[in-house]
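ok new one. same drill as before - structure tokens go in, u give me an amino acid for every spot. 200 of them this time. try not to just spam alanines like last time pls lmao
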């Protein structure tokens, strides 16, 4: 049984000033509004509705914090990209996303979720460039991997790994599917490493 199944919802905040003490270790999840971020968090924690999944992408408008244990937290950042929301709201999200990544001391790793069929779009690249500049390790998680046949999936991952080298930072790439669990083990290993949780 994974320790991530013990994760509990802690707080929703409109910006970093409402997040609480900047201590311990936080791992943030970010991605375009339709990248399957909520589904990935639910798969990781084995909880069906920890993170709200929605047919309308972009429902995560707040920074949602989930507590693993004292001093260890998963953070679900507002989705960016497609969401059908007014520009002013979109700008506000981008601002809170940027602020969190630039000013939060306790963030120790960033998981960027991208649809395996359309990886590294402009906003994804911007986010990763920023993380690399801040010496933050990144796990690029290529979601919806079950949508591709095995050969095509491997080719996409190799292509993405090659593309990731251009960031000149600690950027790893893995395929992931929240429907059949592809890549779940890799995700857990990476989070354990960032959180400093010893592996069995």
């Amino acid at each position: 049984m994974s320790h991530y199944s013990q994760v509990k919802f802690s707080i929703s905040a409109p910006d970093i000033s409402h997040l609480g003490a900047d201590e311990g270790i936080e791992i943030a999840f970010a991605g375009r509004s339709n990248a399957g971020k909520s589904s990935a968090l639910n798969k990781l924690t084995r909880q069906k509705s920890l993170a709200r999944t929605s047919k309308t992408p972009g429902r995560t408008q707040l920074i949602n914090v989930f507590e693993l244990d004292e001093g260890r937290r998963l953070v679900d950042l507002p989705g960016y990209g497609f969401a059908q929301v007014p520009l002013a709201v979109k700008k506000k999200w981008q601002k809170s996303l940027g602020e969190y990544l630039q000013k939060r001391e306790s963030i120790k790793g960033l998981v960027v979720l991208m649809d395996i069929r359309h990886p590294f779009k402009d906003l994804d690249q911007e986010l990763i460039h920023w993380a690399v500049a801040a010496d933050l390790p990144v796990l690029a998680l290529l979601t919806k991997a079950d949508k591709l046949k095995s050969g095509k999936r491997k080719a996409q991952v190799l292509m993405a790994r090659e593309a990731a080298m251009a960031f000149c930072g600690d950027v790893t790439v893995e395929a992931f599917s929240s429907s059949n669990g592809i890549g779940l083990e890799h995700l857990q290993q990476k989070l354990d490493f960032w959180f400093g949780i010893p592996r069995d």
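Helices lie at 37-45, 87-103, 122-133, 150-164, 184-195. and btw The chain has a mean pLDDT of 88.
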